[in-house]
Each structure stands twice: as C-alpha cells, then as structure tokens.
Fold each of these.
Amino acid sequence: MPDGTVDAEREGEDEQRTEADGEAAAETGILSSLESSPFTVRSAEDLSEEELAEYREIFNLVDRDGGGSISNSELGDLMDTLGINASQEEIDLMINEIDQDSNGEIDFEEFVAVMSRRVKAAYTPDQVRNAFSFFAGDATPGLIKPECLERVLLDYCSDRVNKDQVQELLRQLETDSNGLFNYTEYISMMMS
C-alpha cells in the first residue's frame, strides 16, 4: 500500500476512536452527574466546616427570595435549570420526601441532610475525572473551560437539556481567576 493510503486509514481510525472515546467519556462521567443514582448516606456530623459552607452557598443560590427555605417554586426552578422536567406533583413529592417538619418547604438542615448523601455511582472518580479531562482540551489538568463544558453538554445531553438550561447551569459554576472550573473539586465533593 502507498504510504498516503496507510496515513489516511490511520487518520480515519483516529477520528472514529476519538468520537467513540468522546461518547464513552461523556457517558461515564459528565452525563452520569445529570442522571439519578443510588446514594450512600453520610451524617451531618461527618461534614467539614468547608462542606457546610459550600452547602450554605448552594442553598442560598436555590433560595432565590432569601426566605431561609426552599419553596416548591424554587425547587421547580432548580429542576428546570438542571434540565429535569418535573411536574408539580413530582416537585411536591420531592418536597414532602425531604421536608421533615411538614411545613411544605425545605429548610437548611433538611437540605444538608439530603446533600450530605454521596453518589454511589457505577463509575469511579478516576473514570469521571478522565471524562472531564478528555473534554478539557489544553486547560490545566483538573480544570475545564466553561465553554468546553457547554459544548459537551449541548452535544451529548441535548435530549435532556436545552441551551438556556446549560447556560444557567454554567452561570452557577464557581470558576477561578482565569475563568476555569475545577472539576477535580467537584468530583471529590460528589463522589468522596
């Protein structure tokens, strides 16, 4: 075979492998965090001050009116942002499941009880880290540009989220001074 033919075949194989690797990486990592998973429970006493502060920050983002609790309307907004199409009945069921004092809203202590559960995923932290790394491009290891994450979510999750939902999700990411998202910290928080 002429050398040009072999090179063309290798390039074709590389493109196929890259696309297949991308789909596999997306399925095993980034997408898994959008899907429901079984949980293991950690008690609030096991949480560090840093974790509690992070949960407070998340809680405050969801508690848009600053009332000190998450209403079913605010939970509905969160579900929309995450690309989860939940009916009002499903949102009410979620509230009822979490709401220990039966006041119809989720207070911070109830929120912490739910958030302190850890994802017991079918994927290891290394697999999820590799999935993020695959899409991170030339970013520093452990970091990803929000625009890369946006592209992945739109390319591989378009059946679950639309562009507005992805942009809302990206607006809520904490980025460093260079505008990069630390996916290593995110994976540690979700899967440790």
Note: The chain has two domains: 47-117, 122-192.
Amino acid sequence: MNMETSQLMAAARHFTLQLSSTRRGARLARLLAVEQLRSWDLEAVTEPVAQIVAELANNAVTHGHVSGRDFRLRVIVTGAAVRIEVTDTQGDHMPLIEDPEEVGETGRGMLIVEALALRWGAERGPAPQKTVWAELALPVANPVRAAGARGALSRGAGAGVAAPRGAASRSGTT
C-alpha cells in the first residue's frame, strides 16, 4: 500500500461486504449499500448508487459467477466523490458497453452505469479476480471534508484504466 493510498483510506469512509454470488446476494448488496449511505447522511446519492450497485452486482452474479465463490462490494466516500467497487472471480470476462440496437432485453447494465457515473472502469487482478468500479460526485452541500483527499479516489488504490463518459462505448472495452 503506497503512502497516497493509506492517506486516502485514513480519510475516507469505507464499507466492504462479501456476499454470495446469487440473486439474493446482489439484492442485499444494493439494500445494504443504501442503508450505509443513509447512516453517513448521504441520502442525496442513494438512488444513483443503488442503481449502480444493482447493475454491477447483477453483472458479478450473472457473468462473474464461479460456483462456491462470493463477490465483494466496496463503497468508499472521500472528498467530493463516492466510489463503488464490485469484485468477482471472472477476471477474463471484462465488462463491455453494448449497442442497445444489437441486444435483446438484457445487456444494457453498463449503459446505465455509464449514464449515472462520473466515470467508471475495470481492473484485472489479483488473479482470477476483476474489479469493476464507478465514481459519482457528491452534492456540493454535503461532501465529506478530508484534508488532502479531494480527488484521491482517482489517483489512489489502483485506479486502473478509467473509462471517461462515452469512451467505453467508442472502444467497446474499458
């Protein structure tokens, strides 16, 4: 852990859960993330966070499921942002933005994440895992004040490859 990452974690509020890789686990991830945000007085972001957690957890359960393996949800609030991370055990299956014209009734989850998030991305590792993350800005009226932590979410804790809004749909990968 580098110095910047340890400063980020000391200044941040963070919430981590390991959940079963089932539909029930995905539902619990959404419900518990919302309750945690409420306990931090961050109700203004509960709806978009709930939707992003639902999409990322559903992807972990649907596309990242390995029998007997769980997925991990992590919510970090620091500076003026909230970061949602979902880690599963299928590092070889990276998320894609699919053309809505070419998919049926499913396959639009990452389009929703892209529409709600300030930025999102995915990282491989440690093997066999991958972490898909999304960041949202906190309302100016209620940011978490932490000296030196503003903007650290993007720089610390293995920020990996970022997908600025619109970039993933152009390249097809993150």
Note: The chain has one domain: 3-171.
Amino acid sequence: MNQTTHLQERALQERTLQERALQDRPLQERIGMRAPLLLAGITLVGFGLLYSLAGTALGRVLFPDAATGSVITRGDRIVGSALVAQPFGDARYFQPRPSAASYDPMAAAGSNQARSNPDLRKRIDEAVVAVAAREGIAAADVPAELVTQSGGGLDPHITPAGAKVQVARVAKARGLDQATVEKLVADATEAPQLGVLGQPRINVLRLNLALDALQH
C-alpha cells in the first residue's frame, strides 16, 4: 500500500513538473526570440536609417558640391551639372562628345555596338565627315572623342585636342581673337587627378560659361 501510494505521489510530481514546463515554455520562447529581434531592430535602424543619414550629412560637409550633384548656377538659375554633358546647338559654343542617350540623364547608356558592327562604323564615318565640315579641318584631323560615344553617354569632358579643333569656329562665331579663345581653353584644362589618374580634360559646360562671361 505504501509502495503504491509512493508511486502515485511520484507520478503526480512528474505530471506537475511537466505541466509547469509546458506553462514556462512560452516565456522561454519569448526570451529566446528577444535577442534576434533586438539585433534585427538595431540593424534596420542603425544601418538602414542612421548610417544613411550620417553618410549623407558627412558628404554634405566634406564634399558639399558633389553631394548636391555638382549643380552649376548662374544667379538663381540652374544651367546644368558639371557631371553631365549637354548639347550646344549654337556655333558659338564648344561641342561635347556624342551621346547614345541623347544627353538624357535618365537614359544614360552607351550604344552597346561592337567595333565590328557595320552600323557603328557607318555612324562614325558619317560623324567624321560632319565634324570635319563643321570645324573646317581634314577628316584625318578629327579627334576620335568627337565622333565616339562614351560608355555612359553623358561624358561632360573633352580633351585639349578635342577643344583645339573647335577654337577657330568658336572664335569666328563670337568675333574673338583665336588667342583669346585658346587662353580660355588653357585656363579650363584640368590636370589628371592626383597628377597621374586619367588625362588632361576640359569640362565643356564650364568652358562655354566662361565664354559667355567673357562677353558680358
């Protein structure tokens, strides 16, 4: 009898412990989920929001011009960006490189045509003839950059050679001495970055704005 009672009491204790464990499981599960949820929240807020805000604020402090798109203004009017080429249809202005995107920043792209593509060769041949006629030079003297498109289609720069062949036309259209225009080109020529990266280049928009400022 005593043995039976003892077994019953032991079974009751085990059942009580099992019931208590079942009751405590939701609490343990909630405690176990707290760490990953906290980590997810810190990651989302810290890296998704605070990091972005800090990076934007730091960029505005260290590089205020580049952080706002390198926008160029004249008075209260935005005339363009130093990072994006734009067309100039007037003979009084230097011309940028051709654009496969029609100078549309929302459609930046190259032509994706291989050098062996006959359409590409035809377009370049036609462009060489057109540039040579526009600048009054031989086809062999046309710089390659003035008839080829950059990879992004919005390259804002040309080389000094690309500007040199346009000096005579611009000077004649504006009634200026070639020497005056050549000096503007020289002043607008940017050295390679850090002295070794890239090659000397000229921002076409800035050069054209300097021309306009010269005659106002």
Note: The chain has seven helices and five strands.
